[in-house]
Amino acid sequence: MSRAPTVTGIVLAAGKGSRMGQTKQLLPFRGQTMLECVVDNALASRLDRIILVLGFQAEAVARLFEGRDVTVVINQLYESGQSSSLKAGLQEVTHEADAVLFLLGDQPLIAPETINHILSGYERSQNSTVVLPFFEGRRGNPVLFSRETFSRLATLSGDCGARSLFAEYAGHILEVAVSDRFIITDIDTEEDFHRLLEHDADCS
To answer: Is cis: bond before 5, omega within 30 of 0?
Structure first.
């Protein structure tokens, strides 16, 4: 690719967060919400555009992002699983995008530099259709998918997300080692959230 590829970030934040017992998207963190931290980190990276997919309590969550350069998409089918959010986000991707990077709305500590490191790996690769970040041998998120996978992503169903495609594209996967351990940490339960707050307090 003679030019730098264009990559759109899709933040998946439509779920109900039933294991948490409250709306994860609105959890307070660093003077704002956890989801705002995710989106702001994405905006601070080299991603060309950010699409935010909402579902549960979408109106209340969407108000947080007024004034930010973010395209908000409402997934009315969010209860059918994460694949519906993947597809809702993809529908908003323009033809200029060479790839998408799926970010999770409950990973607020993934730094812009980590995102950029994944993008750099994709830029340097010649035939990679999927880029997976790894921390100390463990696969994490966010994951990048090139345009040639879009039609396949559009056929997914259920709550497994895009993991089911890794075997299918095994010969064209680029594994990128990162030093950011937060790629393997998401916030699913109250215990997870308390650990996040404790870590942040220890680092401040």
So the answer is: no
176-187: pLDDT as tens digits: 999 999 999 888
Residue 31 dihedral angles phi and psi, to the nearest 5°: 80, 5
What are the Cα distances from residue 94, in Å, to 62, 100, 157? 21, 11, 22
Whole-model pTM over 0.85: yes
Q: Note down the domain range covering 44.
A: 7-203
Q: What is the CATH number of the domain that holds 117?
A: 3.90.550.10
3-state class (DSSP) for residue 115: helix
- Each residue of 87-113: b (16+ CB within 10 Å) or e? bbbbebbeeebbbbbbbbbbbbbbbee
DSSP for 155-170, please give it.
T--SSSTTGGGTTTTG
Q: Decide which of 180 and 162 is more confident.
A: 180
Q: In 3D, which of 191, 175, 186 has the Cα closest to residue 136?
A: 175
Number of domains in the chain: 1
Residue-wise pLDDT tens digits, 50-59: 999 999 999 9
Q: What is the CB neighbour count within 10 angstroms for residue 29? A: 18
Whether 2 is in a domain gets the answer no
